Amino acid sequence: MRSSDATLISALARRADFTVPIKAAAVVFVTVLTAAAAQVSVPLPFTPVPLTLQPMVVLLGGAALGPRLGMTSQVLYLLAGIAGLPVFAASATLPQGPFRLLGPTGGYLMSYPFAAWLTGWLASRGFDRRYLTSLVAMVAGLSIIFAGGVTWLAWFAHPVPVGPAVALAGGLYPFIPVDLVKICIASAILPGTWALLGRT
Asked: According to the CATH classification, is domain 3-199 in 1.10.10.60?
């Protein structure tokens, strides 16, 4: 495996002999997929943080694209939201646009580029080739999302920070079981794709 084929998208683009357009299209695709995943949103009555498919998409995208392109896809997602495009999850209290990043979910959203970078960095070092190491990469990225989200919710969220105890109760604990199930499923996708790529 060449060093330039360290990520899945690099290997696929090289096989197609169309590297730059395929990578650019893949970044845009992950950006759009992140926005689509935000629309699959389940509000929970005890927390302002909804349950969405976004973390799984962010981590999978980062692993497939690698650190630089994975981070780029999420920066583009945030820029689309700041520009007022309807890419964020539905909210009863905050409109679409830049002020959403100041609200209760702002920390989760702003952590996406860093989570994608870390997961992509680990994937570029071969963590996405086997299930258990792929799971480690996904857990590491998910930890970034939770850390950013809970920290923001506890101390910086508009209109009122809720403090660490409430932030943990409403922004971390309820999501751990569901998100662990999601990343256990997601962790099988990239090793399976690499295995298929190796056979072809």
From this structure: no
